[in-house]
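Readers outside the structure-tokenisation community will struggle with the description of the input data as it stands. What matters is that the chain and its backbone geometry are given together, residue for residue. For illustration, here is how one protein appears when written out as sequence plus structure tokens:

…
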Amino acid sequence: MMKEYVLPLDQRAEIRPGCITWRIMDAEGRIGQMTIWPDTDRGAISWGGNSAWGDWDWNERVLILDEDAQDGRRIIVYEDGSEKLVNQPWW
């Protein structure tokens, strides 16, 4: 049974009509929230607490986070919440 999840405060402050938001769960059972702002091609993901923000790629259906991993690789988050580290440029 999934516990109730509330939209993170930083995403809630920016939400407006037309935004797309959905719940995600990783392989370990962590529940998160992903939100896309179609008019700006931006998105955010949160596993609790503040969100990580980035650019949404409509063709690949991934969120490319603004902040890189510690080793300098890009963090790509798929629409199901799974993550992948890739060298830049990733496309």
About this structure: Residues 68 and 74 are 5 Å apart (CA to CA). The helical segments are 9-14. The chain has one domain: 9-86.
